[in-house]
Specification:
The chain folds into two domains: 235 residues, no CATH class; 128 residues, Fimbrial-type adhesion domain (Immunoglobulin-like, Sandwich), CATH 2.60.40. The chain is built from two helices and 26 strands. The chain has a seven-stranded mixed beta barrel. Strands 17, 18, 20, 21, 22, 24 and 25 form a seven-stranded antiparallel sheet that branches. It has 399 residues and is an all-beta fold.
Length: 399
């Protein structure tokens, strides 16, 4: 009996899965602050002489593709504007009086088609605001400019009533820039140290009111919106709008919030010198409790203001940096040095330790440079001859 062969057919099903990676949009920004800041008439794109203010800085946003509904976040500090105190008059022939409520707004000026194109002006209200509104809506904006420039201004006007697209209109916050007093300071009432961040939507139909709906206008859902990295920093409050030297209300004092109206005033400069570059004295005139005037230290205050007092920091050293004492060295290079004490008028100067020279006035200021209290025992143990020393002075302005 023959056995029938059995054949088996095997089918191998192979499933090939091809994954296509998602390419993320490359989007980043830089910020260039203006500093120092001075108020001026018709700053930047604003052409009407009733507008006074200053440009704070410029954001430059770069991307490798279109992005949607860019907005400023964390703007609550300036969302209701700021006020300043300074001199103001109500009409051309009026007298200047100090006003404590001079209102200003922070405005953004965007260039969606690039510099040279038509700008879009927005007043930053509340804790977030779009860089560009579309028919008074916060969505529907697509940016293709490469790069996309957005300037920040502080001015006595806002973008309402037709001003969003027209920088030639007059100021509308109740003041006229021509009635501010030139060459005087304007002090900000309260603090002014805004930090902004930038957000964009993942699609054009999502406005900033949706994608930055978290507490304090934060972005919490990356499927709706994302932060833009500014100078490599991402997240809330990423960018300081001012820098430490922005304020100019008080010359030499960047800690007082406010701005000088007019051209930058000449700041005082300080020139240090000795009355003579070389001086000689007899050791016996400065031994023990004796002191000898060997020179004069002088500081000339240039561009100063009469009646104003200034301060400088002086640090004295000599040509023996490793020794804590001031030293006179043998001229022939042989033998041991002689130590001495140094005085500026009656003030003992410690080597390498800053000395504060206060009450400097416009013009020339001087103090006696004195050497004294040389040890008699030390002199007796040294070889006779000529000894010399070199004094160096570093002068700095206190912060």
């Amino acid at each position: 009996m023959m056995k029938r062969k059995r054949y088996f057919l095997c089918l191998l099903l192979i499933t090939l899965t091809v994954s296509v990676p998602l390419v993320a949009l490359v989007l980043e920004a830089s910020y260039v602050p203006e500093s120092p800041l001075y108020l001026e008439l018709a700053p930047g794109i604003f052409s009407d002489q009733s507008v006074v203010g200053t440009k704070l800085g410029t954001f430059i946003i770069t991307s490798d593709g279109p992005f949607y509904n860019p907005s400023f976040l964390n703007t609550s500090e300036i969302g209701s504007g700021i006020t300043m105190t300074g001199l103001y008059k109500d009409w051309e022939g009026g007298a200047y009086t100090t006003r404590t409520y001079l209102p200003f707004k922070v405005l953004s000026v965007s260039y969606p088609t690039g510099y040279g194109g038509s700008p879009v002006i927005e007043t930053l209200y509340g804790d977030k605001w779009p860089m560009i509104e579309q028919n008074n809506q916060w969505d529907g904006v697509t940016i293709t400019a490469k790069p996309f420039y957005v300037e920040i201004y502080l001015v006595n006007t806002n973008s309402d009533n037709g001003r969003r697209y027209d920088a030639s209109l007059p100021a509308n916050l109740g003041t006229d820039g021509r009635f501010f007093k030139l060459d005087t300071p304007y002090i900000i009432n309260g603090s002014f140290s805004p930090y902004f961040s930038i957000g964009v939507a993942v699609s054009p139909e999502i406005g900033v009111g949706t994608y930055a709906s978290g507490a304090n206008s934060t972005i919490t859902d990356p499927t709706e919106g994302v932060y833009v990295s500014v100078e490599g920093i991402t997240g809330p409050d990423s960018t300081p709008i001012l820098n430490p030297s922005s304020f100019t209300a008080v010359p030499g004092d960047p800690g007082t919030p406010g701005f000088y109206y007019g051209d930058a005033p000449e700041l005082p400069t300080f020139v240090f010198n000795f009355h003579t570059q070389q001086a000689s004295f007899l050791l016996e005139s400065a031994i023990s409790n004796q002191r000898s005037v060997v020179n004069q230290a002088k500081i000339e205050v240039l561009n100063g203001v009469s009646g104003t007092y200034y301060t400088q920091i002086l640090t004295f050293n000599d040509n023996s940096p490793t020794n804590p004492e001031f030293l006179l060295l043998p001229l022939d290079g042989q033998g041991l040095p002689i130590s001495y004490k140094l005085f500026l008028d009656t003030q003992h100067i410690i080597k390498g330790t800053p000395y504060t020279w206060e009450n400097l006035t416009y013009g020339s200021n001087s103090k006696d440079l004195i050497i004294g209290e040389i040890s008699q025992t030390e002199v007796d143990s040294r070889a006779s001859g000529i000894y010399q020393g070199t004094i160096t002075v570093t002068i700095t302005t206190p912060n």
